[in-house]
Amino acid sequence: MNRRFAPWLFMSPALLLFTTYVLWPIAQSIWISFHTWDGVGQMEWAGLANYMEMAGDEQIVTAISNNVLWLALYLLSPPLGLMLALFLNQQIRAIRLAKSLFFFPFVINLVVVGLVFRWFYDPSYGPLNAAITALGGEAIGILANEDTATYGVIAAGLWPQTAYCMIIYLAGLSGVNREIVEAARIDGARGWRMLYHIVLPQLRPATFVVVVVTVVGALRSFDLIAIMTEGGPYGSSTVLAWEMYEQALFSYRMGYGAAIAVLLFVVMGGYIAWVLWQLARRES
Q1: Contact (Cβ atoms closer than 8 angstroms) between residue 218 and residue 74
Q2: 157: closest CA among 261, 241, 262, 264?
Q3: In 10 A of CB 68, how many CB atoms?
Q4: Distances from the Cα of 34 to the Cαs of 39, 56, 251, in angstroms?
Q5: What angle do CA 113, 116, 121 make, to 5 degrees?
Q6: Cα–Cα distance for residue pair 248/9, rounded to 1 Å
Q7: Which residues face 45 on adjacent strands?
Q8: Helix (H/G/I), strand (E/B), else coil: 76
Q9: In a designed cystine with 260, which of 24, 231, 244, 245 is the match (CB 3.0 to 4.6 A)?
Q10: Distances from the Cα of 276 to the Cα of 96, 273, 280, angstroms
Q11: Structure pTM?
């Protein structure tokens, strides 16, 4: 009897914290999403009105489109990270210095990354436009242009994300079976054949991790947008996470903001559930 309840006794503190700080807020957000509420007064039941409004909201359509764009371009970071990891996984002079330089984006805060790229893109004194004007071109306000703002923010996000993928792949390369590699060399495998048939199959666990983290990072993008554009210009660079924040805290529409949060939760939860199902099926 005691052995049967012992695991639950040990897990009870973690379960209590998880319920208090994760499950309860999720349930509360779902409940609020069915109401009209300014965050201060009395909540009024609205049913599915918030979700119906969201279906016809052009700003939500823009946010979803930008999230898809983030996802598509963020998926460039795993192959870029793999290329850097293969380059740094060599025994050559000054390789430790090179590793330190490539590790740097991963250890700095995303707020700092956003501030650095705002300065980099600045049309008045930023290095990018200084180089463009030096070559005879005209200064470009990347973050002030509706067509380029989202791409500018995503480029800033790719910098630390690629560094993260590189670190995971470097760890994976340290576990590659050298005997299999040497046997493949004896059989004549070189270059792309070696990479595709010998190295990449052994890096599947690392690839799984970087793809999952990259997709989740793309879907919950918020920090860089808050620092660099605040969803502008004219809402062109907004995403679901920023729209949720904007509606709930600045427009005092807690119910509508909660509905957006539920939508984001369903999308991310569905993806994570699919990933876990794939992992369980593969292990079985």
Answers
A1: yes
A2: 241
A3: 13
A4: 14, 17, 17
A5: 120
A6: 39
A7: 35
A8: coil
A9: 244
A10: 36, 5, 6
A11: 0.86
